[in-house]
């Protein structure tokens, strides 16, 4: 029994030492809101990353009332067995593999009973970071405060790889290590935000009616008339007279593709026409079709057509060029 306890203690010490060495502080009180507030006091617009470990020699029950302002993204780092309740409802009751994530929004109480040893990352995310990730993903501001309120588990191999990179942050270079932790944690949050809105769109799409033909024609005419301008989902939804979320769902039901994909296809179609019928440079065509730069245009063109625009133009019959 003594040997087993010593082994557990040694294991816990190694995990704690690794957490310290990787620039991620060990979490002494599970999801402690006060600790998070203190850590965020110096920079309220920053993701706070902590690591929770349990040696597992005895079962452990922990509870949290939740933070008033922070979302908590939990990522399981090793296979473990535990029961997790979110607002009183069971989310996990059994063995969970490494790499699985779960999000708890502000003000939601949680309870966990660890039956085995456990190792988890906690990312405490303030609202400004969620909004910044949303803007980067969708190129417009959210219409309201973001609440990632779906407690369902997220199984994403990209999140798993990013979390493993996060705990392996270089400890030798403190400044570089902190920047690394910040960038990787932001990448994880961005991925989580994208998952949330993809789920929301899928739920709406499943119950949505296809966009009526007259609205679809109005959107098509609007897009073609403004291809050279900076337009996106808000402008397309407005042209159809719908909210962004309902427009996106109905548009996908009607066309089988998202509004952004449709917009890129129309821009590439226009670019192909100009490459075939004009003597404009690739840069001029890129700008006139609404791309921010020639490299961006070339990347999208190659992805959709299979080769860069200059090579595609060169392959056209002489009568077409």
From TrEMBL:
Start and end residues of each HTH araC/xylS-type domain: 217-315
Gene3D superfamilies per the UniProt record, alphabetical: Homeodomain-like
UniProt superkingdom: Bacteria
InterPro entries: AraC_XylS_family_regulators (IPR050204), Homeodomain-like_sf (IPR009057), HTH_AraC (IPR018060), HTH_AraC-typ_CS (IPR018062), Tscrpt_reg_AraC-type_HTH (IPR020449)
Key words of the record: DNA-binding, Plasmid, Transcription, Transcription regulation
SMART domains: HTH_ARAC
GO molecular-function term, one example from the UniProt record: sequence-specific DNA binding
Record protein name field: AraC family transcriptional regulator
